[in-house]
Specification:
This protein is α+β, with helices and mostly antiparallel strands and 480 residues long. It is 47% helix and 25% strand.
Length: 480
């Protein structure tokens, strides 16, 4: 036992989990514990005998210890610390944290110091891996931003509704001269106030489900110009935080062109409708005019003339009533979930008397469970009344009309099948056009209204028919 030792200190020294050594001021290792022996790759006896001290890495380490010890004494400090990369005999690098304690009692007894060696190799490797990952992330982010810079679409990156990045295309979109004109402003400033409710709903949707999806906005540029844009949003990590990347395209001119085309189509349709109305109303008016002249010249009243005049006036009234229905906006005012079975039962009850008078039986097949769709009750009733009415008018010899309701998770199908006169393929193609009809007294407007209502409910209508073998109408509506 050395003169500066005692049993308690020796036990703590030897059992320590970190490497420990007593080193003299001339750079000699006086005593080491087993932890330091394992750390440096030499036995305790080898380290204190002097031979490994000639190892260049150990010698450099000891010189560093001596230099720091003397500097500590000069500055009248008791503790100092430094980092050192030790070259292990197994040809690997060990990162050491070296802590020197210059105790007064130690310095007086043997002019040396107590040195602790902690292995920081794993920590250093982890830090290096983190640095490399951070470097790669920065490189990816820089590449990502370079890609956005050259993208022809407008890109804005926002955090909590505040703009943090804009690419050149986005600057042109909002008529800004420099990024600083846009960075830091709220998206509420860019999006027109009439669309703020839509903006809030998107944010609420993302908070609930994590979904954002595509959107159309009216935006107000920095110079006050209004533009219509369409785009979508992605959630990414930007500068270490979650951010929203909005990618937008200016569709102002496209929408204006679509509006012009739609207006042109409306005018064309209105012209065709007006021509049809003029033709349809002129015929009964000609008849009425002729019979009025006959009545004036006749010596006595002719009841047949009055019946014809009354019939033609009723035809004019029918045309005008259907035109009034057609002229009303057919947008769907949703009244809530609608039970298709309940609607069909009401309509069948309504039409049964008329069907019985024509020797027609209405047979229905419904599922056991209620079937629901979303829509407007009265408009859907009008659809099914029109279809049943058409079916009965096509069955002069009586027969059977079959109603079936089928459904799955995506859609509800309502099938109306009659045993009437049927239609050719050419007649099916022209269905829904105004004043094109297979009936002697029809106007074609009823089926046109029916198709519009189904379309506005997000549905479709298919027609299958064979002349003299009946017709089948199938309505497809989205299921709830």
């Amino acid at each position: 036992m050395l003169p500066y030792s005692n049993p308690n200190h020796d036990f703590a020294f030897e059992q320590a989990v970190i490497g420990m050594a007593l080193i003299s001021l001339d750079g000699s290792i006086l005593k080491v514990n087993s932890a330091l022996s394992d750390l440096l790759g030499y036995s305790q006896q080898e380290l204190t005998a002097g031979a490994p001290q000639e190892d260049s890495s150990i010698r450099a380490l000891l010189n560093q210890v001596v230099w720091n010890t003397r500097a500590t004494q000069n500055q009248q400090q008791s503790i100092t610390q430094f980092e050192y990369v030790y070259h292990h005999p197994s040809d690997r690098e060990v990162y050491l944290s070296v802590r020197i304690s210059v105790k007064e009692e130690l310095a007086q007894s043997f002019r040396g110091c107590l040195v602790q060696f902690e292995d920081r190799t794993l920590l250093r490797q982890l830090m290096r891996q983190l640095e490399l990952k951070e470097q790669k992330l920065n490189e990816k982010e820089n590449s990502f931003l370079q890609l956005l810079e050259g993208l022809p679409l407008s890109v804005l990156i926002t955090k909590k509704g505040i703009v943090h990045y804009v690419n050149p295309a986005a600057l042109r979109l909002v008529n800004a001269a420099h990024p600083r004109d846009v960075l830091g402003i709220s998206t509420d400033v860019v999006v027109d106030a009439t669309y703020h409710n839509k903006l809030m709903k998107r944010r609420a949707k993302y908070a609930e489900s994590g979904e954002i999806g595509s959107v159309d906005y009216l935006i107000r540029c920095l110079d006050g110009q209004e533009k219509m844009v369409t785009g979508f949003t992605l959630i990414i990590n930007y500068e270490g935080e979650k951010a929203a990347v909005g990618i937008f395209k200016d569709i102002t001119e496209q929408q204006m062109e679509e509006d012009r085309v739609m207006q042109s189509e409306k005018l064309t349709t209105a012209g065709q409708l007006a021509a049809g109305i003029a033709h349809e109303i002129r015929n009964p008016l000609t008849s009425i005019n002729g019979f009025v002249k006959l009545l004036r010249s006749a010596e006595r009243s002719n009841e047949l003339y009055f019946e014809i005049i009354e019939s033609e006036l009723k035809r004019i009234e029918l045309i005008v009533n259907e035109l009034l229905v057609l002229s009303k906006p057919q947008s769907v005012h949703v009244s809530g979930p609608i039970d298709v079975f309940a609607i069909m039962e009401q309509i069948i009850t309504l039409m049964k008397v008329q069907a019985a008078l024509k020797n027609i039986e209405i047979i229905s097949h419904y599922p056991k469970a209620p079937v629901f769709v979303q829509g407007e009750v009265n408009q859907l009733k009008q659809v099914f009344i029109n279809l049943l009415k058409n079916a009965m008018e096509a069955m002069n010899q009586g027969g059977t009309i079959t109603l079936d309701i089928l459904h799955n998770a995506q859609e509800v199908r309502i099938i109306v099948q009659d045993e009437g006169i049927g239609m050719t393929q050419e007649q099916i193609q022209s269905l829904g056009q105004p004043f094109v009809t297979t009936k002697d007294t029809g106007t074609g407007l009823g089926l046109m209204i029916t198709k519009n209502i189904i379309h506005n409910h997000g549905g479709t209508m298919n027609v299958e028919s064979i002349p003299d073998h009946g017709t089948t109408f199938t309505i497809h509506l989205p299921a709830l």
